[in-house]
Amino acid sequence: MAVVNQVQQPTDLPETSLSPQETRNCLRMMMLIRRFEERTYREYTKPGHHIGGFCHLYSGQEAVAVGLAAIYHQGKDYLINGYRDHGHALALGMEPRAAMAELFGRATGCSKGKGGSMHFFQAQLGNLGGHGIVGGHIPLGTGAAFACSYKKNAGVCFTLFGDGALNQGAFNESMNLASLWKLPCIFICENNGVAMGTQVVRSSAENDLAKRGSAYAMPCKNVDGNDIDAVISAAREAADRARAGNGPSYLVMNTYRFRGHSMSDPLQYRTKDELERARQNDPILIYEKRLRSRGIIDDAALQQIEHEVADIVNDAVLFAENSPYPDLSELYTNVLSETYPLQK
Amino acid sequence: MPVIPFKQAIRQAMVEEMERDESVFLIGEEVGEYNGAYKVSEGMLARFGPRRVLDTPISETGFAGLAIGAAMCGLRPIVEFMSWSFSFVCFDQLMNNAANIRYMSGGQFKLPIVFRGGNGIAHQLAATHSHRVDALYARVPGLIVVAPSTPYDARGLLKTSIRSDDPVIFLESEIVLNETGEVPDAEYTLPLGVADIKRPGSTVTLICWSKMVKLCLNAAAELEADNIHAEVIDLRTLRPLDEQTILESIRKTHRAVIVDEDWPYCGMGAGIMTRIYKKAFDHLDAPIARVCSEDTPVPYSHPLEHAMQPSVEKVIAAVKEVCYV
Q: Which of B168, B155, B174, B178 is nearest to B12 (CA)?
């Protein structure tokens, strides 16, 4: 049941205003995320259980996170996400050390070892977290957009979720509220074609997922989520619109995940043929080819990036391995902000 | 001192805090143009405008979650649920998001938010609109649960709740909303996590909160005829629990009855009893008794609805049981 890119993608190649250095950085970040995720896979499956729990890898979808990060206004904007959240955290600027240490459950992790793979947070960068309940975080994204609008600071919230979340009430309630109140919320569906093991054609009565937003009086658009330039262009248009006070947009980034839903997924719902075709659309290969043709990178530059990201990921794993577990007293901290009895 | 209804005291607290702090806003169904389903927010839209008093569609998940997200980004929302029974529609928002995000993020986010609204059995609203959510939320680490019984307590506790940096579940008995009491004009706040002895006594301790306080005071007055002097403790905050006030009272009276509008099984009373048995077992002269609603859905028909709930007679019977009279 091939569902990859079944929806017609826009054919015009959008121009972005990134400088050559910025495009190189984007490619490098995509490669770093891929390397990080593939290493996570290895660490997870190694004997010794360094990484536990549910772990959802982002390999194949990197163009979306990195494209959004390229237009993200740090200090003003917010991003909130479902549980496939490693890539977005790294793209926004999380130290790979803090990310890997969180996976290892260490005190030095981005959430002090209390969140794990599905709950990467970084308040300082406006990263409102990865969230474990499908669709449950989407209303929070409208809330962050509401806060931007309330404070009139021209910030926006990028609210990301998977194709599975469209079938939750939280998605529909949030789209309605955001449009009703013209909130600066960019709703982004990362459509990798399959919710855990249930393909879009088996879960959505309407297979064109962009149409699922058509009842909410906002721009709805399919985007080639494997093409970072397309991601940037569509996201920038939506963000500009939101910043100008014209309300939310809904973008469906059509992409593919190379790995299973989580680590225990044997991928029985896919054929080799389907995966092979998806590999042809690998967002990193697409971008690498484009930057080569523009003369921005060459073999030597690419090799250098590969070495750099390999070193960074090795360093992150070493850091995580050598970090302490949280002190047992940490069990009781961060439950509440205040000490009770409380009088103010 | 002015005598005002409970709902006006709630409104006073919200208005004062919104005057005091620009980041406080009110959001919920019918809170604005309709002036509140129970008229709690009457006049607030006219006073603060639609930016700070927001009428929502019937979307509990949408607006409760929106408020949580706004709280993560520095605002201080007050969310009104028309009825706490409707909070089940957005249970995920309260249980997974409001209660957990601070912890899950290693303390990076605070959640200054108040969820408030009508709770409990009112007048023949039948099973779906009569839920008592006290114990459901009081068992959740990461939440504060407040359930006042008087207008005075309501105003002072709501003000502190709005100023708290933690998510507060604020329960307003739909029956108590129209009851009146003395409330001073001057501003004041009351502490969260501190019970109040509504009537001192020496023979038995009645532990109660919200709508059950008045019931217990009435029972205590009648018990005087039998020379039983009941001490009535109004918990006011259900989480965190003011153990100290409870234990001090039991060390004095040696007997206790817990009166709860909710079902008996796994209810607040069970949790309170465990703590008393653990810390004051040797001070007890009788097993603790509990008076709860019957273990059935809430019926519509008035006589059935009345029979389902705690009553003065049931409380008196329980007190006599623990006093062995």
A: B155
